[in-house]
Every structure is written in structure tokens, then in C-alpha cells.
């Protein structure tokens, strides 16, 4: 058995789980709060659930792209010779920053995309979702997911550009 | 709210533990860490001795960081200009009849490997000695080999005249590459020069490695079948992790962000490749 490889696998699983749980809880709470306060949506609104599900997927998918660069960052820093305390503080600081940034990017992409789409169409999508219009909710959810798929690589590259990789040279 | 904060606190603890585990994963074994505390340094310099009117012998003393930066590996080797010139002559005579980008480079890389593989045994022996002294695992030995090459400062090697000024540049070299022996003699090498040397050394020690090239990125690097995580390609059912060779600090599985589209990377030479002529030997 390769102990180091097993440890690395456990790290990936646990980091994915912990980051995933945090962002899902936060997103769910925020969406529930917005639905209640702004649109007066309470229970049994299937359209809003579909909308929420697409936002959750969108944010989760966006943040998932940051895990591998984050692990690379940790590995670079682990080799830098800093003390354990410095390393831990840097891990937490950088980790929180990158996850928060990609999370923020995921939320912004969803919001901006939907706002622009709503502005370009004659119907008020949010009002339709509030009225439990499943058709509109499915379309809005699909738009959010597609926009995430289209922008994820760019957001990840933006995140990676902040990671202090060593210099490399090409022809 | 209280429950939410509790959850966050638990996750923070998990995160700290993960961070600790990550640092354990990539650092050397405890025994080596303890040894590395006995800080050792060796001077890095090159010395040229004239053996005759036509022969110069270079002695290169190299030192490069172990995985922790407070200690170094030291290695010295000698190379004669006669050996380097023979390798240079061979390289200047290489022709590739292949039509595709990967195949033409595969011909070139393989011929360079074939010609020089018996001429770089001094390096392989020295690296093996260091590995034995430090009781390195197979993974750590691969790191030792790659970090030796990564530590040699990068230089452009151009087929035409030099048009780059950000790094040292060697112009008008046929094929825009140096052979492994020339690289070790001059300590001047670009991405594919480094990749061919690493391919040769890693193959000698039984590692499964590939030379990867990208015409889009104008770059080359190695990929290796080692336990790692990150950017990789799957080849013949095994995961080969990309390993950047042009500077120190790059680990297996870390593709630079500006060259990280795996679709743009192609396998040029694999560890099992052999020509009909070489397989009949």
C-alpha cells in the first residue's frame, strides 16, 4: 500500500467534502432568505426549488475547479520551508480567499446572467417562478447552468493566476 | 445560528488537519528530514581544464535544494569536449522523415537518446549514489533526478538567430535542441533539451515516462507514472502526471496555468518506444 498516495486521496476527499458542505449550506441559507424576504416564497414552490437547485449546482461546480489549484498551492507552500504555524495560517488564509473568490464568481455569474436574460425577455422570470411556473423555472435553471459551464474555465484561470506558481519558460 | 457556527468550527478543524496532512504528504520521510537538519552546502562552479590543444575538460560542481530548502544535494562530474563534439556532430546529422509534428520530434528525441544513453552513465551513477546515501524512496529518487535538471538555469536554444533577450540564448543550433551530453557539457538547455535528458535518465532507472510536446504552447515537458495528484493524461491505462522541467519548484501534476489545456499536449515519445533497428540489437 502506498501510504502517501492514500493520504493524498483522503486529503482530496475530505477537502472536497468540507468545502462542498460549507458552500452548499451557505448558498442554501442565502437563497431561502432571499426567497422569503424579497419574493415572499415559502413552502411548496417547486419552481423556486428548481431555481435553487440550479444555483446550488452552478456554485458547487464553479468552486470544484478551485480544489486542485488549491492543493497545488499547498504543495508549493509545504516545500517553502516555513514553520508549521506559518504554513497552517497561510493554508487557511489562501484557502479561504480562493474558495470565497470562486464562490463569489459563481454567484455573480448566476445573478448577472439571469438579470440580463430577464431584461431581454418580455416576461418577468422571477414573478413567474414565484407563481410556481415550472416551465420558466426550468429555462432559468438551464440558463444558469449553461452560463456556469461557459465561464468556469475563465474563472478558474483567474484564480490560478493568483497562485504563486514558480516561473516557467516556453519557446 | 449557533449550530451554523459550530459546523463552521468543525470544518475549520478539518481544514487545519488537512493542511497538516498535505505538508506531510509532500515532505520527505522523517529520517531524511532529520538528516537534512545537518545543514550542508557545497559550492557551485564550473572549471575548464585544457587537456590538449584540441581537448578541454569541464568539471561542473552542482548543488541544488533538497525538498526542504535548508539543505542541498551536491554532485560533480567531468565531461570532455571530445565527447560533446561527437554528440554535437551526431545531432547535426539527424534527419527526420516523419510528416507529423509529434512523429518528427519523436525521431529526433529517440535518436538523441539512443546516441547519448551510454555517454551519460556518469550522471546516472552519481544520482544513484546520492539516492543510496540518503535512502530515498522511488518517489523521492524521481524528485531528485528531476530537481537536478530543474535547477540548471534555463536557456533558449534556437534553430535560427536568437530573438529572445529575457534569458540566455543559444542561437543557430540545428533543430533548436541540444543532446543530453551537450546539455550536461554546456549547462545550457531549453524545454525539450531537458526533457530528453530526463527521459534518458528516468528510463535507465526503470521509470515509465513520456515526453510531451505542444505546438500550440511551443513547449515540451515530461509526464511520469508516479503516485501523485493533479494534471495528468491516461496512457495505456496508467496515469502519467505532467512535470514542468524549466525551473525549480514544480511538482508532478502541476501544469502551469498558461499551458494547462491538456488537449494541446501530445505524447511524442513513450518509455516503451523502440525503432525496428534498435529492437534488433
Share in β-strands of chain A: under 5%
Q: Which structural class matches the secondary elements of chain B?
A: alpha+beta
Poorly predicted segments of chain A: none
Q: Calculate the terminal CA-CA distance of chain B, rounded to whole Å.
A: 75 Å
Strands of chain A, total number: 0
Give the strand order of the largest sheet of chain B, numbering strands 1, 2, ... along the chain.
8-9-7-6-10
Low-confidence stretches of chain B: 28-39
| Number of distinct helices of chain B | 9
Helix content of chain A: over 70%
Number of strands of chain B: 10
Radius of gyration of chain A: 19 Å
In terms of quaternary structure, the protein is heterodimer
Question: How would the global form of chain A be characterised?
Answer: elongated
Concise summary:
The complex is a heterodimer of chains A (171) and B (281). Chain A is mainly alpha-helical.
Q: Could you walk me through the main structural features you see in this protein, from its secondary elements to its overall organization?
A:
The complex is a heterodimer of chains A (171) and B (281). Chain A is mostly helical and 171 residues long. Chain A has one domain (3-162). Chain A has six helices and no strands. The longest helix of chain A is centred in the middle third of the chain and has 37 residues, at 84-120. The radius of gyration of chain A is 19 Å and the shape is elongated. The mean pLDDT of chain A is 84. Chain B is α+β, with helices and mostly antiparallel strands. Chain B has one domain. Chain B is 40% helix and 20% strand. In chain B, the strands form three sheets. Chain B has a five-stranded antiparallel β-sheet with strand order 8-9-7-6-10. A three-stranded antiparallel β-sheet of chain B has the order 1-2-3. In chain B, a hairpin with a 4-residue loop joins β6 and β7 (219-224). The termini of chain B are far apart. Mean pLDDT of chain B is 86; it is low at 28-39. At the A-B interface, α1, α3, α4 and α6 of A face α1 of B.
